[in-house]
Write a structure and sequence with these properties.
The structure is a homodimer of 384-residue chains. The first copy, chain A, is α/β, with parallel strands linked by helices. Chain A contains 15 helices and 12 strands. The longest helix of chain A is centred in the N-terminal third of the chain and has 16 residues.
């Protein structure tokens, strides 16, 4: 069994005074402090980062981290667009299945705000197909097509989308590390400018800097010394076409459905067993699709679920979604996001989610997506 | 035990009529044909590529490969600079230790010749530290410093370096897929223009396009149906400082030493047991250092070893090095290189190395380096 024994996140936001590796160093130091471990206790590192190459011409970050920490252990850089963090968790979990008595540091980071919006948007578009890039489709553009089809097919409107933003900004207001900590209203979302019809500014996750680290272990000695532990029951990954045009329909993300089905099966759980979930709400429409694809409601019912604020903290629902604020309000430093999701579930399952602690949560789920669904990872965790 | 059951390589060279994913498709189709397997037999894919992001703005290649092959299986993109291929082999080997009855496709590819020399050189420099990049140090520059120190300390000269090029071009002349298939002389190397003193054009590996695939499995049914099999005894990875200035000395590559030591230990073998080795000769000096760091000779003796052509095919030596032609003559499409090394060892151990078959080889070694030694992977294989 793979245990999660610690988590640290930097603040997410426009952190102009810090470089990518300043952030990496802060989160690694932070998680070692939180777990009272020394770097010598770490056997291997997985590092999730998407844009270091295209934005800063920095590849080979394994060697950079070796230099920062003064270690010679294996360090694996993982890139799977916006799912890089989730894929790193997935790989680390697999790694621990192959090695006994081992301890793995999983760190994710992204530095996105030091560049012009054009540069960052171009960098992010590297997660889309060449044809999509050449036709000028950015990610708001791709997700706006998903939103248009969904709203039309199931007869929802922009207010439906906006309710996701309202809920997640409320959650962000309870998270000191969130990029956006202000409550917003439906009218504020609807009054914000269009990015790509029907998505408005406040339907979109922000451009962010940040880094997160978790420590996973199957070393019983280290587990025995840990104060706050939860376990990974399953972590599964699936892929799909990079191009939206090659999908059978535009109202679901098959990679999420496949990864979820495998992850439920491997853990022996069902959607109704999950109390808390961090889902990939890069745009408001994405959370609605995730509700359906993860089996939390039937096809077409996601809009109804979010409109009722059924998954909002403090409303007594059976499933609370994106207590961190999600990508939408907590921020989306791409490589860090999938680690933050697992970290937030860890905080919830170990009773450390200050201001936003969901009571009696036994099972949590983290759902991380790359691009427009070309990759998805679903990880299910449990409290002890 | 992890078995290698098949290998395919495209030709290496300036393949202007083919895109990165044309090459990927050719090598995947090729290895499936060579093994009589269907894509449905593959459980997971590791894809090694360094420069798709920085040169072509193409990340998220997992989803691109999912689209190409029509599969939803996990696909992991691996990047560790010039060691990407070796790291992919290492990760795939670890993966198979955690999953029984599984079959893994490892594919590596790089497309480097569609760009100006300035663009490709800048892209490759992403494997060096920011400080090294800013000071204008390219990889020939970094390795020239290693060469200067080595020649001075052990009293060798440019002829010593040139002998590595002569040997590897001879081997390349025996390999139909090599980028350079012409024999060269010491004088030709010495008469070629300087790139970075003491390294001349013919001391440097070329800029290349190419793709390679291998299939690894622990599925006994698939193994039973395979005609040509060798086994991976150990695959180990180590990291080191990205910056040369932070190394204790410049006459060895500690990451190679550590990875080799771990790999020998895990396989129960010693350097003298190895009959064939593919080592990372991105520049001639690199092969000399590798001879020492891999334990094939003592410190300072690498220059003597290569000057005598002791590791050249057809000379009856106990250890033959870089029968493929190495990076130097076979070419260096970065993400493919580490896969090609394992593939060449596979060909040798299974008696398929046309024109250059080393007799009675039982154990082979593949050695892949990232940057100036920030990463190294050493994989040891055996015939059945």
């Amino acid at each position: 069994m793979v245990s999660v024994i610690g988590y640290y996140t930097t603040k997410f936001g426009e952190l102009w005074e810090k470089s990518l590796f300043n952030l990496v160093e802060e989160s690694i130091t932070g998680v070692l402090n939180n777990t009272s471990l020394d770097i010598k206790d770490i056997d291997v590192i997985f590092f999730a980062n998407m844009l270091g190459g295209v934005l800063e011409n920095n590849l080979h970050s394994a060697a950079k981290i070796s230099e920062l920490l003064g270690v010679h252990i294996p360090i694996y850089r993982v890139e799977s667009a916006c799912a890089s963090g989730g894929v790193a968790i997935n790989m680390a979990t697999n790694y621990l299945k192959s090695k006994s008595n081992s301890t793995v540091l999983v760190v994710g980071a992204e530095k996105m705000t030091d560049f012009s919006p054009e540069e960052t948007t171009l960098g992010l578009s590297s997660a889309a197909s060449g044809e999509e890039q050449q036709s000028g489709l950015t990610f708001p553009g791709l997700y706006s097509m998903l939103a248009q089809v969904y709203l039309l097919k199931y007869r929802y409107n922009q207010k439906t989308l906006a309710s996701v933003a309202v809920k997640n900004h409320y959650h962000g207001s309870l998270n000191n590390n969130a990029q956006h900590q202000k409550i917003i209203t439906i009218d504020q979302v609807l009054d914000s400018p269009y990015i790509a019809d029907p998505l408005k500014v406040l339907d979109c996750s922000p451009v962010s800097d940040g880094s997160c680290s978790v420590i996973l272990t199957n070393n019983q000695k280290i587990i025995n010394k840990s104060n706050s532990i939860c376990q990974i029951l399953s972590s599964e990954m699936a892929t799909d076409t990079i191009s939206l045009k090659n999908r059978k329909n535009l109202v679901s993300i098959p990679s999420t459905q496949i990864a979820a089905s495998k992850s439920y099966s491997a853990s022996g759980l069902k959607p109704k067993d999950i109390s808390i979930a961090e889902v990939h709400d890069c745009f408001t429409i994405a959370e609605i699709l995730a509700m359906e694809d993860l089996g939390f409601c039937r096809q077409g019912q996601g809009g109804k679920l979010v409109s009722k604020y059924a998954t909002m903290f403090g409303r007594g629902g059976k499933l609370i979604v994106n207590t961190s604020g999600g990508l939408k309000a907590a921020g989306h430093p791409v490589g860090a996001t999938g680690i933050k999701q697992v970290g937030e579930v860890y905080l919830q399952l170990t009773g450390q989610a200050v201001n936003r602690q969901v009571r009696n949560c036994k099972y949590g789920l983290a759902h991380n997506v790359g691009g427009s669904g070309g990759t998805a990872v679903v990880t299910i965790l449990t409290s002890l």
